[in-house]
Amino acid sequence: MAAVQKIGIVGSGAGGLTLAALLADAGLDVEVLEKAEGPSTLGSGITLQGNALRIFRDLGIWAEVRERGYPFNELGLRAPGPDATVLAVLDDVRVGGEDLPATLGMPRAELAAILRRRAEAAGATIHYGTAVTGLQQTGGTVTVTTAAGETLTYDLLVGADGLNSTVRAAIGIEDRPRRTGMGIWRAFVPRPTEVTRTDLYYGGPAYIAGYCPTGADTMYAYLVEDAQERHGADGPAIMGELAAAYGGPWHEIRMNLNASANVNYTHFTTHLVEGGPWHRGRVVLLGDAAHSCPPTIAQGAAMAVEDAAVLADELVRVQVFDDAVLTRYWQRRLPRARTVVEASVQLGQWMLEGRRDADVPGLMHLVSDTVKVPV
After folding, report:
1. Domain boundary residue among 225, 252, 268?
2. How far apart are CA 208 and CA 104, in angstroms?
3. In CATH, what number is assigned to the domain containing residue 27?
4. Does residue 81 sit within a domain?
5. Which candidate among 165, 236, 313, 334 keeps its CA 20 to 30 Å from the CA of 79?
């Protein structure tokens, strides 16, 4: 019998739902506490690399993920400007193994729905409209207080509640995300037929212009610029103006950046809890609550689901719970998370500095070699 039997998970992102499914599979009583009133249908697309796909295969959802997404094995580099000249087409590294694609794009809401169904099928319960406002540890339990005035008690509480984690603050970990100086426009739009992989355009009015196919008819496009205070209502017009400098598929993308387009803007941020453990007593952090990075390497979701796989492994295989269980978890995860966070930030910093002599291939190989090794 596992050392803990009733587990609360705060947050229903990719990491939290992956952990819920794995622990429920092991026969544990799992409750997911989500502050949103219901399943999210928002967001643009998400890029998943092989190390995330490997965990989804182990979870038994790879066939559904593949069906709902768009897999590819190449990366294109194009010149900025109206001609969008293809400079190179590179074989992308299959970090999940040769039996999985290098990359898969899919709508965020589709991935969330697949993981939600998998967690519920395993026996996990998801409570929507349940915002955690405080917690208290007494002996071998954690008691959570919600905004509705409920009290819920668990053997272990997992904070998988994102960048601005309430759980992280409640246990006194002071690390917070900081802005890196870049911002990103994203738009979820129809897929031009010629878009069959991610292409990146470096230079022009944006640091990066890129896109990722997410399905037979969908894709998301993005433009990375100096961080600014942008307003959502003006998003389609501003993004369209920036996109005018780029050719190829951007002509059709730009035509779909109308007032009804799903366009959003966010700042690049980063943080890493590395000055101490990711837990206090029986409360532990996972995913963006513990570490976050700009999307320059597209490893954020993968790091969260890897966290879930490692934490589940540590919890399920022991019969006596003590501090060493959670210590092993964060010590296994910290070096890998640090590599990804630092590399993601470094790539952005090189662009901000205008560095043309930066060893980008070397940095990308470091990340690939790191995440190629199963957790």
Report:
1. 268
2. 20
3. 3.50.50.60
4. no
5. 236
Tens digit of each residue's pLDDT (9 = 90 or more) over 68-77: 999 999 999 9
CA distances from 132 to 70, 103, 155, 166 (A): 36, 35, 16, 7
Distance, CA of 115 to CA of 15 (rounded, Å): 9
Domain that holds residue 242: 179-268
Domain count within the chain: 2
- The predicted-structure confidence for 287-318, as pLDDT tens digits, reads as follows 999 999 999 999 999 999 999 999 999 999 99
3-state SS assignment for residue 207: strand
DSSP 8-state assignment for residue 273: -
Amino acid 120 reads: E
Q: Which of 181, 179, 350 is nearest to 269 (CA)?
A: 179
The reply to whether 26 and 124 lie within a common domain is yes
Q: What is the DSSP string of 44-74?
A: -EEEEEHHHHHHHHHTT-HHHHHHHSEEE-E
Q: Which of 304, 283, 327, 278 is nearest to 375 (CA)?
A: 304
> Are 28 and 131 within one domain?
yes
Q: Is residue 65 part of a domain?
A: yes
Q: Establish if 85 belongs to a structural domain.
A: no
